[in-house]
Structure formats: structure tokens, C-alpha cells
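#structure-requests
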Amino acid sequence: MGSATGTASIRRVATLETESQVGGLIRAWRERRRLSQLQLAAQAEVSTRHLSFLETGRSRPTREMIERLATHLDVPLRERNELMLSAGYAPRYGQRDPDAPELRAVMDAFRTLLDAHLPHPALVLDRCWDVVDRNTATDVLLEGCAPELLEPPVNAIRISLHPDGLAPRIRNLGQWRGHLLSQIRSRSAATGDPRLRSLLDEVSAYPCRDTGIAARADVVVPLRLGVGDTEFSFFSVTTSAMSATDVTIDELHIEAFYPADEATARAFRAP
């Protein structure tokens, strides 16, 4: 039978390990944002000494301190929950299924935007660009893709760059590929999500001989897509719910495609 002193020692070791774990995560997020301890301490209005103690595990942050630092470090909600768990607290933000009743109002709003965007393509995508919802105009984008790429969850990046997906029909594949890879790198750096790094490694390996040089007339990166003998040209606009307090909603965004030239606009206006 263990002594009271032995039990207390075990608890103290466990506490130190927890404090060290959350401190390491705070430091990793600070370094990811390229902030010094002095800069973050000034922004969060805490002492540099206290921040140093938190990062090294000499002090345990309160829930309020974790939230304050996470806000100044622009930590996404999923990763804020991980910070809470690493400090021994319950997650602060819910993560519901898109079909959950609590999310109905927001998901209905997304669906309204998708339908209102017709006759142009639009999709609801999650953090890793998996398709959550889409309007009927996206059928033109998916035409001719291999059936296995259309098995849920459909990934918009994968299906765009895969040689059995849209890639053979994208006339400016190198340019569009460069744009998508840049988006993944940026989001991966912002979130630290290993799933995004895995996606980047996968799609970067797909073949592409196009140099990706932008046309002088381009003001945005277009998606130039061949459909039969016709070429459509689109640019995309992203919309998200900026006030989300649920992880699922925080990670959703609408990718809406607009005609980038008059010929495409006329084609989609035609009955």
C-alpha cells in the first residue's frame, strides 16, 4: 500500500508534465507566429517573466490565460481545445456534426448562399477542402472525373490536381496548381494541422509539366477549364462565418466561382 507522500509525489509529477506540455504548445504557437516572448507578453499584457514560466512549465496557466494568449496568437478553435486539454481543462468549444440541430441556422444560411449563387458553381468546404455541400452548377466541374475520386469525402484539392480528376481539363494547370499549393501551405502554417501537411505531400507529387506562368492580363488567378470544345474561366471568392464559436463552423468556408471573362458569363446566363 503506497504512502500518502508517495501518492502526492506522483500527483506532483503528473502536474508538472501537464504544465510542461501546455507550455510547449504555447511556445510552439508563439514561434509559429514569429513573435518573441517580449512581443507576445506586451500584446497579451502579461509580464515576460510570467510568460517564460508558462512556457517552461514552472507555472500552470488558468483557462482565462490560455484563452487570452490564444486570442493574441490567432489560434483556431480546434487547437484552442487542444491547449485546454493539454493543461488539464475541459475543451471550451463544441464540435458538432454539420447535421446537428444547433448548426441548422448556419448550415441553412450556407445552403441559401449556394442556391443564390446559381447558375455559377459554389461549394461548402471544410478546413482540409473536403466538400460538405455544393450547388448543382458544380456538376460541370466534376464532369469526367474518376468515380473513386467522387466517393465521399470528396476533396476539392485532390480532385482538382489528380490526373484522373480535373487536371487534364485545366488549361492553366501549373498556374492553378501553384495557387492551390500556396493555399494549403498557408493554412498548414496557420493551423499546424498534420492532415494539411499530408494533403500537401500527396498532391505535390501529382504530375504537372505546366510552368504555371501567369498571363499578363490576369488580375486574379483564374481556373481555365475545358468542357468539350469550350473553355470556361473562373475566379473564386471565399466566405466564412467570422463569429464562430463551434469548431465545425469555424472550419467551414464557401468557395464561390465567378466568371472571369464575358464568354463564360454569357455561357452560364444561357438557358
